DNA sequence: CGCGTAGTGTAGCCTACATTACACAAAATT
DNA sequence: AATTTTGTGTAATGTAGGCTACACTACGCG
């Protein structure tokens, strides 16, 4: 089994308890993403993480608590990447392309797709849970991009009268692919374009329509 | 098993058996959409539909079979509406607006949103099921619109070098709203535009970028 | 040491279904 | 009406899995 032999790691111990906690969190996240929340039993999680059922209950109240902890623990890096991109600055058209790349890349990860499935499954049972994820993941990104658009508009580097509307559309263009995948699985790809083409066409559409500065000569 | 239908029924009775079947199908569909496939028990379904558990098993093999029957029975009218629209003809820009309206309208129905949830929940467990829905609902619509775009392109009424790509983008613009709703629930609407604005902006974007004939003067 | 706290492994309780069995009632058929 | 066919109500049956209890172990600290 998991021969813990003589645990010689007494020095750099980042707290015994915390390590167990993270192991369980990771195992649970992996399994939930792979097979769905309902389909995974707590015993399975413990089997993968090591430790015991009792400890799991000690650390997280119950199954729902475990899911909550996963979310609380998870880093939704997208808006941070967007922040970094904005901080780096540049020509609007290029920044837009950068945003598209970030969105499509992040949403292409199987983990993200799996997470979408989990959230969707729980939305009916616990709207509060959906809200937490919504505010932690979706809203921050939307806000960043909306501000960016508003800035461009204010400074005359683009013509975007309704930034929120534009952001919604831009999300539609880029994120729809991953959402289809979450719904239908891999077979959805049969009708879907590869990421690079998506990035190119979506930015072309936007720069053209919203007169975003920096577009190559038509 | 099903006796030969030699017996001529009395009145307009659409077959006793068939009526029970439909009642069960409807009850099941409603409940699945409202609360999710897993969360609904067969007894509940019977309670709503009338009839008995035994009959349910007689008609549909088991719970999965019931779900399958719902799908087989369901009319995915979207592509038919699109066909009708195409048959009606018209200026490309106006037809595009019509397509947008059809898509957004269909995907705004709570039933569609619920169905998306159900499909997504089952995709992991049974990819074949996802495939069936995919081919019955999504693919036909995509194909219709792609042909339409290709026609416009061929006849010089638009410039759409890659119709499939364009269709994907158009779906993204229009359908993303419903998909967000499926994932996050109603609270997603906080960041989402109303349907009319979506229709207007999406068609404006497309007619402008793809030079679709019939756009109002810029 | 030797005690106490935390962690482990496991067995079992308990509930919620899916699925089946069966005894009965209502039609349909003759 | 008698018989056959079909549908109904309800009560098993079996199983999965969340959750709890508990006896046991490892280890830190005096």
Automatic annotation (TrEMBL), chains A, B:
Keywords tagged on the record: DNA-binding
Pfam name, any one: TetR_C_7
Annotation: DNA-binding region: 41-60
Taxonomic superkingdom: Bacteria
Domain HTH tetR-type: start-end pairs: 18-78
GO molecular function, one term: DNA-binding transcription factor activity
UniProt name for this protein: Transcriptional regulator, TetR family
Family annotation (InterPro entries): Homeodomain-like_sf, HTH-type_TetR-like_transc_reg, HTH_TetR, Tet_transcr_reg_TetR-rel_C_sf, TetR_C_Proteobacteria
Record PROSITE patterns: HTH_TETR_2
